[in-house]
Amino acid sequence: MEHFTLLLAIVVVTALVFDFTNGFHDTANAMATTISTGAMKPKAAVAMSAVLNLVGAFLSVEVAKTISGGIINENGIETSVIFAALVGAILWNLLTWLLGLPSSSSHALFGGLIGAAVMSAGFSAVNGGTIVTKVLIPAVAAPLVAGIAAMLATRLTYRIGGTTRNRSTSKGYRAGQIASAGLVSLAHGTNDAQKTMGVITLALVTGGVLAPGANPPMWVIVSAGVAIALGTYLGGWRIIRTMGKGLTDLQPQQGFTAQTSAATVILASSNLGFSLSTTQSCSGAVMGAGLGRKGGVVRWSTATRMFVAWGLTLPAAGVVAAVAELLTKQGTWGVVATAALLIAGSGAIWLASRREPVDHTHVTGEQTPAGGTTGTGPAAEPEPAGVITAAIAAVSPPPAGPTSAVDGHAPELAAAGSSSHTPAPAATV
Asked: Keyword annotations for this protein (predicted)?
């Protein structure tokens, strides 16, 4: 431990801060649909997710090894590169959280690593083959596979169960949602917590504390697991609202199939060492489940903003990290300036979020079809429906069977300007 310098300590702390932001940024992956369908109360949902994220952090280190020895070449990379990469990832995470966009924390980290490494040592510092096979291909395949699986599973579920909407059926699917949400949380811990483990391990290698190719030490595994669990417990309510109601209106059957499909994809990728985005996998599954129900629609205006954020994540985080690395290369004053910019940027984003605060009450109250609430306040503004959504909602019949107060369901208007006399697909709240 004689090589454990002040800069290395700063990098480890910054990595844990990123892990914390990853936790509250990605809470929606596991719990948005569970909360939106009423299967669990918000606070209980995020508490359960936090515990299972912590457990999942101990199940595997395959993804951590991909990060620590696969994305960039360890030789010739200085510790300051890792710090600059984390700055880019944290700022992008906070910005997309402010906007309520479920972008990928994983890709923010990858973009930061790539941008900082290229600025430090050129393109030779990046392993292009690993990026293509273990980052880019899974980024495209994961949401497609999860979405198609969720759509087919949803159609099969409704075909088997018909249009039954009785109390026992709803309770059964809600119980299944709780189990599948726990599985997603466990999968998230095995995948995302390991990314921080990999970054800290990479920093320890560059600082001379560990030998190249070493596995994460136990203290790294524990600290990364605790950090992501704490972030998860606080809950990213802005993104939960977008995932739970902004994309589509989900019934318990759809929530169950979406979460099960996403968890299967994430766990399989973790065992293979694929460092995919859990956010993209879960978002794809939610959209697939929305399309799988007869009369269900996806709000493509929200989905389009998500797709744009996904495409911008790698390059945007990379550019910020490259600028941060340019500063840190100037010496001690550059490192101090970069840290100051990180603190100032994070503080500015937090202050901006206080203008329109969103908490657990915004995702449990009665929701408008566009993802807002029917209450008052800035967060209650509904999102305008897209053209595609309006067209589909206009011609799609609602699911058969009346919606009764006994079942706890209330009819909602379609997302695109339906009149009070025109029924739209019912949504379970």
From this structure: Membrane, Phosphate transport, Transmembrane, Transmembrane helix, Transport
What's residue 317's pLDDT? 92
Task: Please provide the average confidence, as pLDDT, over all residues in the chain.
Answer: 74
Contact 36, 255 (CB under 8 A): yes
pLDDT at 25 over 80: no
Q: 29-43, 227-241, 305-319 — which one is most confidently predicted on average?
A: 305-319
Residue 224 near residue 196, CB atoms below 8 Å? yes
CB-based contacts of 425, cutoff 8 Å, min separation 6: 249, 293, 295, 296, 297, 393, 396, 398, 399, 412, 414
Residue 400 lies in a domain: no
Q: What domain count does the chain have?
A: 1
Token pair of 262, please?
């996403």
Length reported for the chain? 429
DSSP 310-332: HHHHHHHHHHHHHHHHHHHTT-H
The domain in which residue 243 lies consists of: 6-385
User: How many Cα atoms occupy the beta-carbon half-sphere of 243 within 13 Å?
Assistant: 33
Measure the CA angle with vertex 152, ends 150 and 156; round to 5°.
Answer: 115
State whether the Cα torsion 40-45-47-51 is positive or negative: positive
Contact 16, 222 (CB under 8 A): no
Q: Provide the angle, in degrees to the nearest 10, between the axes of the packed helices 62-69 and 167-206.
A: 40
- Let me know if residue 205 belongs to a domain: yes
Buried b (16+ CB within 10 A) or exposed e, 296-305: bbbbbbbbeb
323 or 355, greater pLDDT: 323
Give the distance, in angstroms, between the CA of residue 237 and the centroid of all CA atoms in the same chain: 12
118-160 pLDDT, tens digit per residue, is 898 888 888 888 788 877 887 888 888 888 988 998 888 888 7
Name the token pair of 61.
């280190």
**Tens digits of per-residue pLDDT, 353-374?**
888 877 666 655 444 333 343 3
CB atoms within 10 A of CB 389: 23
pTM of the model: 0.71
Query: At a CB cut-off of 8 Å and minimum separation 6, what does 397 contact?
Result: 294, 295
CB 36 within 8 A of CB 250: yes
Contact (Cβ atoms closer than 8 angstroms) between residue 276 and residue 266:
yes
Bridge partners of 427, per DSSP, are: 410
- 427 assigned to some structural domain: no
In a domain, 113, yes or no: yes
Residue 125 DSSP one-character state:
G
